Amino acid sequence: MLGYVKNEKLEFNYKKSCGLWLIAVALVIAVATLIGGKQIINMQVFSIGYMISFFSINMNKNLLHKLSTGSSTKFQKNVSKYSIILLFILMIFLGGPFFATENWRLIWLGALLATALHFFPFYFVHGKSMILLGIMCTVNIIMGYIFSDVSLVLFAYIDAIIKFIFGVYLLFFSKATKQ
Predict the structure, then answer these.
(1) Rg of the chain on CA atoms, in Å
(2) In the chain, at which end, N or C, are there fewer CB atoms within 10 A of the end residue's CB?
């Protein structure tokens, strides 16, 4: 279904573009949180920033080619596609039910947890750092659920910092690896 070829060595060639994407998303989360308002993380600022970042990074073939060190396999492309689908499905289930009551804390915790969980399959696309990123973001958001008296703003900034650090690492310090 995913196109995995037995004994195929995976090359993680898009680490730099993943790093740039994480930096962009981290900045969008930080700015949307700073502006905040009733929604805690401003939905309009987040949505506009996310879309601008998505199209300027992930849909920019010239930039992706410049940052990559090779191509992805069919399996890796499929894992990426299904991981993004998983992200939106998880968002619907984890954050979606709270739109009716406008419980912005639970909406955003659900969205951020969905994002954290969707990092795990990206291990097959970008390597081991995705597992650590997923664990750190998941633990942070679980703390947000547990410590409900602590402002979501703190957990949003921590989430942005985690993503920013991993983004800097992937963009500037990681090298293409094989698994």
Answers:
(1) 16
(2) N
